[in-house]
């Protein structure tokens, strides 16, 4: 196979992969079961949902999908994208996950309940190529029902939880997601063992731990009441200093929430408040089942915030992520899927009043934009990017074409000097290849050329995919993809004719 044929084959293969990927992203998907105990990880404006527990089927599920939060959406019409075929992790629930790694764009999964004894303690997922991996880091056993927190240095803090022997723990495991090694934190003055607590990283590099359980409990999934056992109080919160590796306890005041577990905690946009939502309640002697509370971090005072919008049913064993100006609640138990969406949105941009809404708006927390203007700009930018893509594709084609012509001419000029070195002429940074052997001469040129081709093709693929994902209709996307494919194929035909003519002249 000639290099020209190989180049054409690679281009066609990448174009096919792009079209398949775009088609998959356009295929609607809806999770088949009510999930709880799943993980929800935000990476590069995609909210990844992995596995969980089916309360009606009484089993772990094996599903992997994401929600694109780079675009506006309504919670009644969610466009999930299914990645279940790429899921290499055994079915599990009550694991924990974070976004970590050297570039802060890798999903790290730890622990979980599973019937598969081969399940590793740690898995990683690379969203850039949709591949799972099992890093070779040993030394700890898998735990579950805990909340992992990652700091700004890529350290994954895993405190407490439940062990495989159903014992409650209060040890602090620390996974370095950059160097892939384990460490341990102090347990001096640490809270009593517990699981299903709330945890959040504060702006001062401290992690706050709230509530949870330290005994086996039974929960009514409809009322969210704990019928057997009890949750721990929220009259105290616990702070772990990731810088100094130390613990301290803080007493709270105000309208203290009832004992609860399986709730979510997030940090407010100004970094001065903790917002908790939902949970399973221990309220045999109280009537407080209020779902939403705020802890003021300046004085550790609890209060119930002012709320507007249609208030949803409370949930437990769900997940909450801060995305833009919203607290995004995903799945859990305590709601009817035929009535309420799997996703809840709470606008937390105004500390004086939080708003339940069904519309995810891309405007920043500090100001709002006119929706029509945003849509128009989206179309205009999409058109401009597509135009740039076509022009860029043409220049990539011309670059490779000129490169091949230069190589052919240079070989003709140096045919009688075959023992001398050949030099790749390229507009890209030069890769020098030095050889003392004439026998390896052609192999070295091919390798260098292949590296440049791979680089160009990767950039070309990324630009095509990015442009096709703009806010234009699905029909127009297909039409543009087909036209682009035809243009490239036509260019290849012309290139083959041109190369053939050059070869004939040379002969």
TrEMBL record:
Gene3D superfamilies: Kelch-type beta propeller. SUPFAM superfamilies: Galactose oxidase, central domain, Kelch motif. Keywords: Kelch repeat, Membrane, Repeat, Signal, Transmembrane, Transmembrane helix. Residues 1-24 form the signal peptide. It comes from the Eukaryota. The chain crosses the membrane at residues 374-397. The keyword ATP-binding does not apply. This is Galactose oxidase. It comes from Rhizophagus clarus.
């Amino acid at each position: 196979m000639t290099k020209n044929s190989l180049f054409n084959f690679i281009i066609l293969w990448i174009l096919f992969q792009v079209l398949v990927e775009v088609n998959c992203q356009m295929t609607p998907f809806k999770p088949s079961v009510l999930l709880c105990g799943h993980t929800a990880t935000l990476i590069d404006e995609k909210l990844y949902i992995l596995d969980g527990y089916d309360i009606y089927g009484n089993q772990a599920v094996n599903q992997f999908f994401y929600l694109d939060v780079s675009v506006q959406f309504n919670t009644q019409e969610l466009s999930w994208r299914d990645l279940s075929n790429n899921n290499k992790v055994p079915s599990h629930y009550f694991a924990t996950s974070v976004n970590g790694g050297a570039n802060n764009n890798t999903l790290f999964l730890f622990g979980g309940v599973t019937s598969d004894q081969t399940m590793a303690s740690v898995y990683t997922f690379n969203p850039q190529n949709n591949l799972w991996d099992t890093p070779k880091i040993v030394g700890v056993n898998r735990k579950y029902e805990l909340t992992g927190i990652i700091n700004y240095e890529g350290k994954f803090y895993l405190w407490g939880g439940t062990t495989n022997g159903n014992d409650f723990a209060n040890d602090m495991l620390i996974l370095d997601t950059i160097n892939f090694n384990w460490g341990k934190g102090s347990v001096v003055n640490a809270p009593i063992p517990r699981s299903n607590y709330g945890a959040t990283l504060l702006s001062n590099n401290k992690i706050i731990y709230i509530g949870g359980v330290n005994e086996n409990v039974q929960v009514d999934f409809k009322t969210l009441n704990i019928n057997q056992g009890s949750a721990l109080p929220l009259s105290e919160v616990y702070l772990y200093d990731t810088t100094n590796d130390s613990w301290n306890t803080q007493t709270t005041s105000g309208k203290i929430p009832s004992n609860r577990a399986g709730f979510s905690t997030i940090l407010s946009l100004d970094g001065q408040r903790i917002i908790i939502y939902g949970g399973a309640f221990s309220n045999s002697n109280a009537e407080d089942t209020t779902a939403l509370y705020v802890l003021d971090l300046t004085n550790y005072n609890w209060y119930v915030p002012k709320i507007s919008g249609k208030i949803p049913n409370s949930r437990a064993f769900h997940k909450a992520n801060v995305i833009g100006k919203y607290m995004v609640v995903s799945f859990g138990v305590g709601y009817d899927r035929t009535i309420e969406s799997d996703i809840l949105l709470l606008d937390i941009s105004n500390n004086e009043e939080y708003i339940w809404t069904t519309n995810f708006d891309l405007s920043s927390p500090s100001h709002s934009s006119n929706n029509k203007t945003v849509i128009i700009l989206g179309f205009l930018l999409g058109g401009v990017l597509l135009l740039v893509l076509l022009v860029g594709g043409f220049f990539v084609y011309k670059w490779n074409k000129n490169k091949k012509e230069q190589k052919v001419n240079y070989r003709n000029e140096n045919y009688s000097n075959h023992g001398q070195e050949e030099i790749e002429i390229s507009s890209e940074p030069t890769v020098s290849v030095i050889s003392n052997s004439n026998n390896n001469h052609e192999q070295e040129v091919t390798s260098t050329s292949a590296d440049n081709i791979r680089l160009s093709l990767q950039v070309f693929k990324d630009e095509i995919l990015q442009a096709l994902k703009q806010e234009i209709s699905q029909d127009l996307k297909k039409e543009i993809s087909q036209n682009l494919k035809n243009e490239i194929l036509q260019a290849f035909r012309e290139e083959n004719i041109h190369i053939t003519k050059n070869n004939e002249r040379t002969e």
